[in-house]
Predict the structure.
Amino acid sequence: MRTKAFIFDLDGVIVDTAKYHYLAWQKIAQELNIDFTLEHNELLKGVSRVRSLDIILELGNVQASQEDKNKWLVQKNDEYLSYLVDMDQSEILPGVIPVLEFLKQNNQPIALGSASKNARPILEKTGIIHFFDAIVDGNDVSNAKPDPEVFLIAAKHLNSNPADAIVFEDSVAGVQAANIAKMISIGIGEEKTLHEAQYIFEDFTQITTRFIQELINK
C-alpha cells in the first residue's frame, strides 16, 4: 500500500480547546473593558498568542507597552492551562479516534502541525499521543499560519514530499497554509468559512474509511 503523510491541526480539529482559549482571552478583554464576543474569537483561529493579543487590543483601540503585553500573554496562558488540568479523552472531538486508528492500522505516518505551545500535554492528557509519529507545535516554528512552515516541517519529519501530505484544518489561515504548501487541504467545520479547502466536512464522523483509502491511493 502507498503511504501519504497525514497532518492534523489540534484546536478545533482533534480537541475543542478553542472554548478554553476564548474564556481565557475574554477574561483579559473584560479587565481591559474590551467587548470580546464569540464572533470576534473567530479572528483568532490559527493565529499565534502574540498576534491574538494584538487583535484584541485593536478591537478595543487600546495602546499598551510591551511590558503590559508580556504580562497579559503570561496571564492568558496561565488561565488557559488551568482549564486543561482536568482534560481527558472525553474532550476528543467525535470521529477523530476511528480515523487515527484506521491510519495507524494501515501504516500511514501521522503528524501534528499546530500553533499551540501546549500540544504535547494536551495529547498526553487525552491519551492519544501514541498515534503521532511527529509533533510540530508552536515551540518549533517561527512563522504563524498562513505561512506553511509548520506543515512543511511536519512533512519533513514524516519523510514525505509536501505533494503527498494531507492536512486537516479548522481555520482559514490553516487551510491557506496547506494550499500554499501544495498539500491536500481538508477543512473541518463550516463550508462558508473554509471554502478554500479542497474537501470540507462538518466533523470527522462524516469522513469514511473509503474516503481515506481514496486519498492514500491517489
The two ends are 11 Å apart (CA to CA). Residues 66-84 form the longest helix (19 residues).
